[in-house]
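worker-3 :: picked ABC transporter permease
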Amino acid sequence: MSTVSSKAPSRWQSFLESDFFYYFKRDKVAMASFAAFVFFALVAIFAPMLAPANPYDLTTIDIMDSELPPSWMEWGDERFLFGTDNQGRDILSTIMYGLRISLIIGLGAVALQLFLGIVIGLSAGYFGGRVDSVLMRIADVQLSFSTMMVAIIVSAIFKASFGSEFYSKYAILMLVVIIGVAEWPQYARTVRATVLAEKKKEYVEAAQVMGLKSPRIMFHHILPNCLSPILVISTVQVANAIMSEAALSFLGLGMPVDMPSLGSLISIGFTYIFSGSWWITAFPGIILVLLVLVINLLGDWLRDVFNPKVYKG
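worker-3 :: tokens ->
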């Protein structure tokens, strides 16, 4: 009798044959949004190689080139496609570097939100009782304040406690912590609701009977079944974190002037917009809107894909 050896499909093959990829190929908006996000990410990663100039290198900046219009306008300079800002920096270069900072802050803040929200949500849902009550009351108190209010208060306290120079040196880390701490309840409540439904199922009871410890059951058995809503929230929260950073920078509580993000570029240009130098604010603003738009479109698509009432096999 001959035996036929069957090779198990690789993870990549399994992904290409999955329903997730099938629906992705059928949705042109999702494909276009993903391609746009990958483009923005690649531009941010390779900004030092792609940017015409380094906006952080003061030796290459000439104040005499300040507020030059885009190259296609009258008085424009062909060296500066999108014009220059009030310090003579190339707008296109500052957008590329600013895009990198905005994405780092957005992704870093969401990573911190994920960590806090997952740990707190799993603990509240799995243990219940007083642990659940205390943790969820803390989340309710924080949710009673707007994200921007919490971020403004915390960033102002940081600046007053450590000084503007210290804050500027660690501005990226500070903003990641501020925005991350302000938004974790969104994850915690979602994870808790999923855990409450999952912990009553047979596989959890079987794990408890086998004597597995609570952390192993929570993170190795229950958490994988909570990933779908977490993934959907994460896409939306990245966009929210980027907008929060932009708003804080616009208010002067975000990135310093010498380390421009998209928000700080918009803030710088707003001062000069009424004098006719509209390009300093317009181009960073357009890029920020497009970045947030494609992330939100991806989030909407993921929400629909994981909703069985919308997508059916």
